Amino acid sequence: MQIPDVQTQFGAAVQRVRMPKQVADSGGAGDAVERGMKHLLSLQAADGYWWGELEADTTLESDHILLHCVLEDRENEKVRKLANYIRRKQTADGGWNIYPGGPSELNTSVKAYFALKLAGDSASAPHMETARKKIRELGGLEATNSYVRFYLAMVGAVAWDMVPAIPPELMLLPNWFFVNLYDMSSWTRAIVVPLTIIYARKPGWRIPEDARVDELFADEKNKTKAFAWERKVFSWRNLFLAIDRVLKVHEELPWKPFRQWALAQAERWLFEHIERCEGLATIYPAMANSVYAMLAMGYPAGDPLIARELGWISGYEIEEEETLRMQPCISPVWDTAIAMVSLEEAGLQPSHPALRSAAQWLLDHQILGPGDWQVKNKDAAPGGWAFEFRNDFYPDVDDTAFVLMALQDVAHAEPECYAQAARRGLAWLLSMQNRDGGWGAFDRDNDHVLLTQIPFADHNAMIDPSSADVTARSIECLGKFGWTATDPAIRRAVLYLEREQTEEGAWYGRWGSNYVYGTSGVLRAAETLGLAESKESRRGAEWLRSVQNEDGGFGETCASYDDPSLKGKGESTPSQTAWGLIGLLATESPDDPAVQRAVTWLVEHQNDDGSWDEDAFTGTGFPRVFYLKYHLYRNSFPLYALARYRNLTKTHPTKRPVLQFNPSEFKHRNGQRG
Q1: Helix (H, G, I), strand (E, B), or coil: what is residue 464?
Q2: SS3 content of the chain, % helix, strand, coil (to 5)
Q3: Is 57 a catalytic residue?
Q4: Residue 103, CB half-sphere, CA atoms under 13 Å: how many?
């Protein structure tokens, strides 16, 4: 049946009716599901949530050594263990990479080298000599990004003229101005506000003379390489570089008329945001910066606020006998929602105690207070979920959508409480839709591309625009709750996804590596909305088929963010094979050869205890800059994919969701734009 008025969206959308077939249970998928379900249930915490490690590169271990040194705690045993971990991650060519198997990366390598010097390693040690050589080959200290140079300047390792100006007067710019705090992404905002305080106060912290890193310059005569002008007569970069120079001149003036007012605003913002979260923005860089800022303001290291921030930071540590590693943040809400959806697909009963306790835990963590998102979304009421245990200022769209889908199939002991929470969550989700039809992660219409030209925007994450993966999750969620392809919000989102599809048929994955992740999510959403037979969906499925590895699995290296020719290429991994299989099952029959091969790969690579092994980083923090390994991905997503396959191969009654709503009751509420 053709859906009226949707011909331009994903082609002529046809409600797909798929007749279940009795196909071979390839490689024992049913048994694999049962084992996987038992293993995942065994990982549930007593309070009802799931929480897996979130692993990153050595940047955070390096930063943590610096934090200990600023706190005059250089002899702490933790510093020795952090240094051990960094040494073990050094690559054969002397540098450090940002994902396993990747090339050495300059910023990570400079931070590692500096941290090891702080920990006492001699510059003449063989591993330091090879590191120094590699760093120079990569461009040297002068080619590092702003934040590396800021931390070095903060302790006197380089001069402040190597750092872009980040003055606290930034806090005074009104929200309508073409550059302002709330046009920056939420994570940049939380990182930068403390830096404005540090930049203004320029604390006199000093490192031991033998820990300086002057030897890392590739060209001693060009230490300000990062501020080189473009050859164009006019460019936005040149304009911002000119502004940067004016700001630095202003910094040298004895009289700064707005400085104290600006610092007061920055300090107030900092303390307000610390109050309602477990560490500023619950991300390590912002939390460490908040400690530095308070120290720069004159607070002693033993101050209760600093002690509280340090306490939250210590919760990110994973200490072993000889090493200590740091998590960039923690993901209990996200891990719990994914685990629940996987277990529900695997057949766990809606009234099962594990699901009920997890659902109650999630309901208790719904955010009902104000946050930064309200600056651009003034009319909406709160109702979202954050990624972490408590991060009240920063609920996000992706978590909220996944949580709502997880809660939908649970038989709640108090159904009316759940219904109210779901209404609030759905209304908030709808209100966060961007003007281009898509959804970003933390803010609405956070897409001011001009800001990416600011000198301190070189971490490749200055803004938070719409992305295909978050948009797909949002409309999948809405589709499960009763929205159809004809709803105005869905139609705008589908048009956005149509524009975002690549020539090959894939979709970019902003928060997961990479095109396999993005394409899988879009196809899953298309299936939910009855758009699985559209020409765009067919192209997406054909692209997945074209990148399936010979062994039947799917894999994609993080290098595809730098080199698009590597789309969908990489060694097979459990999480990416699961994503590929989920995408194929949205459009293909379970007996399709590509489906069967992916199922076989997952079954054959399952461990006896029901788990899967995965070394690759398949999560994304900032594309091209920072990648992640979610330790539960390798178990939750394969379980879901195999369960989905199993359910489509047998005749079974259609699962009725516990709760659905009439979308019409959400019209014109909470700032929703039709």
Answers
A1: strand
A2: 50, 5, 45
A3: no
A4: 11
Q: Say if CB 273 and CB 281 are below 8 A apart.
A: yes
C-alpha to C-alpha distance for 204 and 659, rounded to whole angstroms: 59
The Cα-based distances of 355 to 49, 50, 63 in angstroms read 10, 11, 38
**Residue 535 backbone dihedrals phi, psi, to 5 degrees:** -65, -35
Number of folded domains that form the chain: 2
Which residues of 504-657 form beta strands (DSSP E)? 619-622, 626-630
Reported as a single tens digit per residue, the pLDDT across 293-335 is 999 999 999 999 999 999 999 999 999 999 999 999 999 999 9
Q: How far is CA 345 from the centre of its chain?
A: 25
Q: Are residues 266 and 253 in the same domain?
A: yes
DSSP string, 443-457: SSSB--GGGGGSGGG
Question: How far are the Cα atoms of 51, 99, 560 from residue 105, in angstroms, in the given order?
Answer: 29, 10, 15
- Within this chain, do residues 207 and 316 fall inside the same structural domain, yes or no? yes
pTM of the model: 0.93
Strand partners, 630: 54
Lowest mean pLDDT among 251-260, 399-408, 592-601: 251-260
In a domain, 497, yes or no: yes
Of these residues, 398, 399, 436, 469, which one is catalytic?
Answer: 398
What Cα–Cα distance (Å) separates residue 277 from each residue in 153, 270, 430, 613? Answer: 29, 11, 25, 33
pLDDT of residue 233: 77
CATH assignment at residue 117: 1.50.10.20
Q: Which helix (H) or strand (E) holds 324?
A: strand 324-326
How many whole angstroms separate alpha carbon 649 and alpha carbon 363? 34
- Residue 130, C-beta contacts closer than 8 angstroms, at least 6 positions apart: 93, 94
CA separation for the pair 600, 588 (Å, rounded): 16
In this structure, what token pair is assigned to residue 415? 């159904």
**Residue that wins the pLDDT comparison between 9 and 649:** 649
Residue 21 lies in a domain: no
